[in-house]
Design a protein that fits this description.
Shape: globular
Protein name: Anaphase-promoting complex subunit 4 WD40 domain-containing protein
Radius of gyration: 26 Å
Structural class: mainly beta
Helix content: under 10%
Keywords: Cytoplasm, Repeat, WD repeat
Number of strands: 32
Largest sheet: 4 strands, antiparallel
Pfam families: WD40
Organism: Gossypium stocksii
InterPro entries: WD40/YVTN_repeat-like_dom_sf (IPR015943), WD40_PAC1 (IPR020472), WD40_repeat_CS (IPR019775), WD40_repeat_dom_sf (IPR036322), WD40_rpt (IPR001680), WD_repeat_multifunction (IPR051179)
Mean pLDDT: 90
Low-confidence stretches: 1-14, 25-43
Distance between the termini: 71 Å
């Protein structure tokens, strides 16, 4: 054994009598000297079956073709859009031409065309191979959202310049400009029957329009409506009701025909500064008498329209940013600030699956036309595909 004198001299000698046990070690099993921490090289587990990494910046928008079950469009902060196919890693078409972030994407109802909207104030139209068709010009500010008419090649888009524009895509002509009081048009859509337009703005108003004349039919504002800007909007399948969410943490349901508020609810929590938590996403259930909404209060609320009360309040670990129904089923997907996607059974209020893989907040979700795939885009710069055939 080493003596105290040996240790003081900085030298330690071991003879054969000090050996307790010998172990043979293969050199291949030894760690490299350059590896400071083996755990840094272990990838986090993920549940996605396909990852699209063609972008070089944050992703904001995703859309699935209504006719081709593997065709997907994505857009983001690198000023680019892409068309790509699930399971076909060797096929992608870059959508070039925007000079600012691609903020919104939408396929036409017949699946023949794709529209992309950018913060450059332009709407561009493409075929499903990624070939450029035309640019729709007019708005003086960034495009906030895009919607196609449910029965034709008309596009409606909301802009930062406080207007919404409607074009005939086949000839590029502007058909109408819908102007409010001077606030960003943050959300909007055609009713499913195509006869009416609803838009929501930063001035806490919902406006209901005649698309042919461009005239405002109703303006919904003041008590008992929102007190801060609208963030999201959805319209019932029978074209009678609009549900809207706001920065003020409230949700209101409006009768489109009368312009009257018929139902109201609000977030159950407030932020650390005492202000309400913003509602980020709203929707009507396709086949049930429910509405759903989620927001920064970390909850998804499933609201019973017949009883005007919550069926379930589904808790998340972080804020809810977006949602998507899995077809006409009882299942709903939510995207969260922590990069997770939760699948909820809305009949029971249970989370039956959590998909992991994204490193940052989910920005948008889309479901493939065959109801087999859920596609998500994130601030981490990737789009991921998850299998959902077991839930539909």
């Amino acid at each position: 054994m080493p003596t105290q004198d040996d240790e003081e001299q900085g030298q330690v000698f071991v003879d054969e009598s000090d050996i307790i046990h010998e172990v043979d070690v293969d050199e291949e099993d030894l760690p490299d000297a350059d590896d400071e921490d083996d755990t840094e090289n272990i990838e986090d587990p993920h549940d996605s079956i396909h990852i699209f990494t063609g972008h070089t910046g944050e992703l904001y928008a995703v859309a699935c073709s209504p006719t081709d079950p593997v065709l997907v469009a994505t857009g983001g902060g690198d000023d680019k859009g892409f068309l790509w196919k699930i399971g076909h890693a060797d096929w992608a078409s870059e959508l070039k031409g925007h000079t600012d972030s691609v903020s919104s994407l939408a396929f036409s109802s017949d699946g023949q065309l794709l529209a992309s909207g950018g913060f450059d104030g332009l709407v561009k139209v493409w075929d499903t191979f990624g070939n450029f068709k035309r640019t729709l010009e007019g708005p003086g500010g960034g495009i906030e959202w895009i919607r196609w008419h449910p029965k034709g090649h008309l596009i409606l888009a909301g802009s930062e310049d406080c207007t919404a524009w409607m074009w005939n895509v086949d000839n590029g002509n502007c058909l109408n400009v819908f102007s409010g009081r001077g606030a960003i048009v943050t959300c909007g859509d055609f009713t499913p029957d195509g006869k009416t337009i609803c838009t929501g703005s930063e001035d806490a108003t919902l406006r209901i329009w005649n698309p042919r004349s461009g005239e405002s039919i109703h303006v919904v504002r003041g008590h008992p409506y929102h007190t801060e800007g609208l963030t999201c909007l959805s319209i019932s399948s029978d074209s009678t009701l609009a549900i809207t969410g706001s920065k003020d943490g409230s949700v209101h349901i409006v009768n489109i025909t009368t312009g009257k508020v018929v139902n109201s609810c609000s977030s159950q929590t407030v932020s650390t500064d005492g202000n309400p938590e913003s509602i980020e996403c709203v929707s009507f259930a396709p086949n049930f008498p429910w509405a759903v909404f989620g927001g920064m209060d970390q909850n998804l609320t499933i609201w019973d329209l017949q009883n005007s009360s919550p069926r379930f309040i589904c808790n998340h670990e972080e804020g809810v940013t977006c949602l998507a129904w899995l077809g006409a089923s009882k299942f709903l997907a939510t995207g969260c600030c922590d990069g997770r996607i939760c699948i909820w059974n809305c009949l029971s209020g249970e989370c039956i699956e959590t998909f992991k893989g994204h490193e940052h907040a989910i920005q948008s979700l889309a479901v493939s036309s065959n109801l087999e795939f859920l596609v998500s885009v994130s601030m981490d710069g990737t789009a991921r595909v998850f299998e959902i055939r077991d839930f539909c």
